[in-house]
Structures are given as C-alpha cells and as structure tokens.
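User: I'm writing a tutorial on reading structure tokens. Could you give me a worked example: one chain, its sequence, then its tokens, then a sentence or two explaining what the tokens reveal?
Assistant: Sure. Here is the example chain.
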Amino acid sequence: MANELKYHRILLKLSGESLAGTGEFGIDPLHAEEVAARVQEVRALGVDVAIVIGGGNLWRGKTGMDRGMDRATADYMGMLATVMNALALMDAMERIGLITRVQSAIQMQAVAEPYIRRRAIRHLEKGRVVIFGGGTGNPHFSTDTAAALRAVEIGAEIVIKATKVDGVYDCDPVKNPNAVKFDTMTYMDAINRRVEVMDTTALTLCMENNLPILVLNLWQPDALRLALTGGKVGTLVTA
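And here are its predicted structure tokens:
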C-alpha cells in the first residue's frame, strides 16, 4: 500500500467546527470520534499525520473585537481554544488506539508538550499523530497560517484543508445551485479571487514553498483515502 501512496506525510487542517455539536458551538464527543475515525483510516495507509485545528467552535476573536476587545487579547484567547480542541481530539484518537501527542506553541506543560520541530518530526517517524495547538504562538496570525508554517517545518508534502464542502467554488454552492467547482487552481488565482481556501498569508507561505493545498469534504466517504492514493477529489491548489 505504501508504494501506491501519492503523499506520505500530510498536514490536516481542521476547523474548530468539525468538533462542534448543534449550533456549531462547543465540543461534541461524537464529532470528535468521527474525526478520529477519519484519521485512523489515513494512518492505516501508513501516512504520517500532523493536525492543526482551529478554535472557532469555542471562541471567535472577531466577536470580542467587535465589542472593543484588544486584538492581541482576542487572538490569545483563540489560541487557548485551539489547545482545548486539540486535547479533545487527542482523547478521541487515543481511545481508538492512535498514539497521539499534542504540542502547543504557547507553553502549558501540564497538558501539552512545547512545540519543538525536531521532536514533532521524531513523533511522526514513530507513527504517532501530532496535533499542533496554540496557533503560531503569536497574535495576528490565523490557524491557516499556523497550518502552512507547521507543514513546511515538518516536511509535509501537502496541506489538506478538511471542510464540509467538496472543494472550491466560484461562489457559495449552498446559496447558488449553479456554482461552478474548480478541480485545480493556482495560488495566485486563489489569492486574486479571494476564495475561502486559506487566508492570504497562508496561501503566500504555501506558494513560496511550493506546498500544494487540497480542499475536500472531510465527511465524504473515502475522500481522504482517494486523495492520498491519487484519486480525483476536491480542489487542488498548486503553482
């Protein structure tokens, strides 16, 4: 199976909403278990898996800033939310036998390892799943940017942006049934069209390092497996 793989090390970018219950808020253990099962399928193929997860299901900085909150404070709160999500996902994965490590860019040694690049790579080499929490550790950067940065640092071959939509469209497919899906697009197309793939900083970082981005529907059966074995799925953003 390893010889059939198109990618051998991936960075999976999850939104906080992937763990949310009804109303897209909070942490639903059932959703965490479903995500863990998807990751288990990927590990069974022999793929190294690192994960960056957002915190939007627990806190959105924009909400605070709209009420006058300092941007840095709002961002740090969001980083803490990502660590909570990372711990919830770690628990769900370890309950099904996946050995998992959480590394946080903000040091909190009682619950997570500090982010150390070489240690993260060593965990991956030993078959462990690594979840990166705390964003980049700095305000003013999104978890999209954290995903791109960590992917480059650990030598991931692709960033897989797991969403509830099966790719990138020219407009919202929920609102417009005639929306056209892109099978492929360039980094500059994604930047110029301002499509909701990743923010501009993350896209630029991927472009500078020639790191492809694949947008797919996490909940579509076999989508991840097809992506990793060269199947046609989602939207691929490359040079």
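What the tokens reveal: The mean pLDDT is 92. The longest helix spans residues 71-94.
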